[in-house]
Amino acid sequence: MRSLFWIVLLSGLLAVATAAAEDEAAGEQAKVEKSTEDGEAKAKGAETEPPPWGLGISVKTTTPSSTLIKDQNLTYTQRAFTSVDFSPSWSFNDHLDVEGSVGFSKEWFPHGNTILDQDTYINDVALGISSGWEVPDFGTKASIGLELGIPTSRFSRAESLLFSVTPSVSLTQQFKILSGLSFGLSGSVTRSEYEFTTGSTDGAEISCSTAEQCERLQNTGVRNARYVLSASGRISLKPVKWLSLGVSGGVVRYHLYGLTDGEATDWDEPLPAEEDMLTVVDPSDTREYFTYGLSMGFNPIDVVSLGIGASSTVPQFTPDQGRYTPFFNRQTNYYATLRLDVAAFVSRITEL
After folding, report:
1. Which phi-psi region, left, alpha or beta, contains residue 180 (left: φ > 0; alpha: ψ -120 to 50)?
2. pLDDT at residue 27 is higher than 70
3. What residue spans define the domains of the chain?
4. Residue 118: per-residue pLDDT
5. Which of 51, 103, 137, 144 could form a disulfide with 85 if both were Cys (CB 3.0 to 4.6 A apart)?
6. Fold (CATH) for 52-351
């Protein structure tokens, strides 16, 4: 009986020890599995979470329609511009971003209008802050922004620009059609501060390369603009994920510095005698022009995107008081853009 008692006791102790060992092993296995799951979740989050910083490098080449269609002007002139822009950004959270833009441009063909043909020149510097929100389940996005323009380009300095401030607002509605259909509205007001009410942009060393700069030649004239109001709409469609199509249109209104009595129309000549001075009866200090755009974008991977399109900026009327044809007219510029997302490129390299 005593031996049977010890046998039963030893068997019980062995069973308890075995159960404890099994429980400990199960606990260690659970810890390992939990650690593995946490590591996988962190790795997955690291892959999907974009970095807070960003840097885009874009190369854009633009040529006017008069270069492609020789009979648009009496004298055929080739013109083409390439601009390289660097756009750093930082995202503090889902609703607040800061960004900047700096770059330079190159004119490729001599055209005889300026001394510095085929020159390379720096563009204006822009610093901005923006905030955006999205309405869940409705596909509606809204954003506001504020941009500070710093006159580093030769053209802005010739205008005697000191700085410009541009608040803006935009609203985008997305629809679940194909890979994405969206409709957007945007508006902005630019307040510019100048040293003088008129610029000196007619010098031989000044060449206009953008629609806004060349606008003085056909619409605004020599006076600088205190305010510029802009409103536009855009419709874009993505038939597939890597292809996007867009069409846009808008109106821009310039509020120029006032033309006072006694100012001559030719700024290079002295004022006439008092009895011959001009009298402003019904001054017009506003100018308007319309903008149109067509674009096609290719984005096969998140690192590189390509784009081609046509943009047109025209006054209200043609010289014979007619209307310009939207999208395609003698003021149309054709462009091709290549953009590199440096942040996405670095993320892909680090994942290897």
Report:
1. left
2. no
3. 1-49, 52-351
4. 62
5. 103
6. Porin (2.40.160)
